[in-house]
Amino acid sequence: MTTVPTPAKLLRSAQFTAVHLEMRDVYTVDGEDEDFEGWKVGHRDDPADPASWWRPWLTLVQEVTGRGVQIRRARIVSEPVSQYIRFEYDGTFTNVYAGEQVRWLPRRQASGLCLPGNDFWLFDGELVLWNHFDGDGRTLQQETTTDTFLITTCSSAFEAVWERGVDHADYLPA
Asked: Domains in the chain, please, with CATH?
């Protein structure tokens, strides 16, 4: 079995674009439990204190976008949104500050789109990193492909979601 490069490593190697399609309503991210629990009792990131935000991820995003790589993230969400998606939404201003462009697409508006079965990253239109999760949103494994059919499929799916999506600045979760 070959080792799959991390999203961070692939992002560092991106030259032009990195797009990320997220389609789950719950993620159980290692190391995020404390932040999620804090959010549930009222803690929010302080917009005036960027040093306290999600590091080292946001530092990486700033580095990559700072050299001209466009990072776009699209999220397909059920409405009313889950508690986890509201938590994600409340922290997304930090992603935008770091240089990501983020759009939200209510799931009911995704009907008619042909979407892959898994979340993915697409780097420079050349490599797909699939993210596989269990039913509770825990990461199981990742795999990559350079299959041109799958790259085209993912690119088309992402662009269709992006076209219908609402910019983070304009989206209000229901």
From this structure: 12-167 (3.30.870)
What is the C-alpha separation between 97 and 46, in angstroms, rounded?
12
Beta-strand runs (E) in 57-126: 70-77, 101-106, 119-123
Name the pTM for this structure. 0.94
d(CA 99, CA 61): 7
The single residue listed with the structure tokens 């990461």 is: 139
CA gap 76, 85 in Å, rounded? 10
What angle is formed at CA 152 by the lines to CA 150 and CA 153, rounded to 5 degrees? 60
- Tell me the two tokens of residue 77: 């969400």
Model pLDDT for residues 88-146, shown as the tens digit of each residue: 999 999 999 999 999 999 999 999 999 999 999 999 999 999 999 999 898 999 999 99
Alpha-carbon span 94 to 26, nearest angstrom: 19
One-letter identity of residue 145: T
